[in-house]
Amino acid sequence: MRKNLKEARQKAGMVQRQVAEYLGITVRSYQRLESGELLGSIQNWDALEDLFKINQRELRMEESLSEAAEKNSC
């Protein structure tokens, strides 16, 4: 699961349907993108970066930034 993507969406107060509509894709496609089942197009990642104001590399990460920092501190 792409936790940073999910966290960014939730922080923005959006549901999956709203993000899917913003991207012009189906809700199921967005769910698959958020879960990591779907790679997604460059255009979609660019749009998500613009929407959430977070670098797409961070959005694509499997673990959240807080989890990564926690692992590195051990």
Describe this structure in words.
This protein has 74 residues and is mostly helical. It has a single domain (3-73), classed as Orthogonal Bundle (434 Repressor (Amino-terminal Domain)). It is built from 6 helices and no strands. α2 crosses α3 (27-35). The mean pLDDT is 89.
Highest CATH level, the class = Mainly Alpha
- From the alpha carbons, calculate the radius of gyration and give it in angstroms: 12 Å
How many distinct folded domains? 1
Helix content: 55-70%
Distance from first to last alpha carbon: 23 Å
Which structural class do you get from the secondary structure elements?
A: mainly alpha
Number of strands: 0
CATH superfamily: lambda repressor-like DNA-binding domains
Q: Looking at CATH, which topology would you report?
A: 434 Repressor (Amino-terminal Domain)
Number of helices: 6
Shape: globular
Mean pLDDT reading: 89
CATH architecture: Orthogonal Bundle
Largest sheet: none
Kindly estimate the percentage of residues that lie in beta strands according to DSSP.
Answer: under 5%
H and E string: HHHHHH
- The unreliable regions are none
